[in-house]
Amino acid sequence: MWRIDSSDVERTADLVARSGGPGDTARIARQIATVLEPNDVLVLGGDLGAGKTTFTKALGAGLGITEVITSPTFTLHQRYDGGRLVLHHLDVYRIDQIEEVVDLALPELFESGGVVVIEWGDTIRPALPADYALLSFAFGAGDDERQLAFTAHGASWSRRTSRLIAALGEPTPGGGA
């Protein structure tokens, strides 16, 4: 069941779902892809190995990208064309200091007209734009179970909260595709 909380001034929505496995995580990503707009920023945080790259692969597929999406852990940034929107996939896990973010030219990416997904982006919050969505991944009780918490920040995500809720619908248990 999705839980919605809009009581915080900075947070405009808080949706929490349980994923029964990679199939559920992929389904959630494809559903979120349907409401993405140019210049959207998705920040992925949470536990190592909890599904951030799996989510990004399915998000790309949901955008119509057919290219194989891999984690840019060592390259820091990968660009994927060919979908409804360009996908910029960043992984800032290896960045030690916020000053290192300057080399990624984030302001230009945020204004590129594509979608920017930043794995471990919660570690660089001062460099993020005012409008972004944070998706936090946490391990659940079972080996494949995950909890995904979606928190929207800013006016752009606020105005789409109802569309996002409609797109996500009711999660299905069991990790099915």
Question: How would you sum up this structure, described in words?
Answer:
Helices cover 23% and strands 27% of the residues. With 177 residues, the protein is an alpha/beta fold. It has a single domain, classed as 3-Layer(aba) Sandwich (Rossmann fold), CATH 3.40.50.300. It has an 8-stranded mixed beta sheet with strand order 1-2-8-7-3-6-5-4. β1 and β2 form a beta hairpin. The model is unreliable at 1-13 and 171-177 (pLDDT under 50).
Using the coordinates shown, work out and report the CATH topology. Rossmann fold
Structural shape:
globular
Q: Order of SSEs, N→C?
A: EEHEHEEHEEEHH
Radius of gyration: 15 Å
Number of helices: 5
Q: Which strand order spans the largest sheet, edge to edge or round the barrel? A: 1-2-8-7-3-6-5-4
**How much strand?**
25-35%
**Could you estimate the helical fraction of the residues in percent?**
10-25%
Query: Which sheet architecture does the biggest sheet show?
Result: 8 strands, mixed
CATH class descriptor name: Alpha Beta
What is the total number of structural domains? 1
Overall structural class, as computed from helix and strand content, comes to alpha/beta
Architecture, CATH level 2? 3-Layer(aba) Sandwich
The whole-number mean of residue pLDDT values reads 81
> What is the straight-line distance between the termini?
18 Å
Low-pLDDT segments: 1-13, 171-177
In total, the number of strands is 8
Please identify which CATH superfamily we are dealing with: P-loop containing nucleotide triphosphate hydrolases
